[in-house]
Amino acid sequence: SQQGEEDPQALSIQEGENATMNCSYKTSINNLQWYRQNSGRGLVHLILIRSNEREKHSGRLRVTLDTSKKSSSLLITASRAADTASYFCATGQGAQKLVFGQGTRLTINP
Amino acid sequence: DTEVTQTPKHLVMGMTNKKSLKCEQHMGHRAMYWYKQKAKKPPELMFVYSYEKLSINESVPSRFSPECPNSSLLNLHLHALQPEDSALYLCASSGTGGLRTDTQYFGPGTRLTVL
Question: Which chain B residues in 13-52 lie under 8 Å from chain A, judged by CB atoms?
């Protein structure tokens, strides 16, 4: 399968704590993207990191990419209840082809 | 307008029915996508249209028939589906991005139940 792996599969933390999710993939990529999905709804793009970049920030999000290890991590700082969702990494594999990882279900407890 | 709309939101159909899912975007994107997502699983790519031509078909059964009438619209025609086809069907659009994979904008999905 071309799909990546994400860990943990589920993560439950207290509001205000940081959440870290990891993604590993198997093939060469042109970029890696992270998406959020609230229960049973469409996906929302969070951040894109190119294959020649190592780290990127957007608000409370920090993404790292290690192409030698074929892995990426997403850090959400100072979590809020509204961050409760499923988070998917997706690897760009050629023009217009995104392959999604298995996802991490994040629960923020008040 | 950065919205992708999908209709209907919910659809229940029998195995002998013919129905269609619709998707629309007005962002000027020239690539549009259909994904299938089962519960607690990631989205799986079904079809990609680029400049209104089918560019990727991920070996989808012929009971699913995509159509791109113009650059803003994407349809998915359904016929003789099986209960295992019940899923959330997501539409997305993006720029064509050359050789790189652009950010995709997703609609809210159609929840399909096949009885």
Answer: 31, 33, 40-45, 48, 50
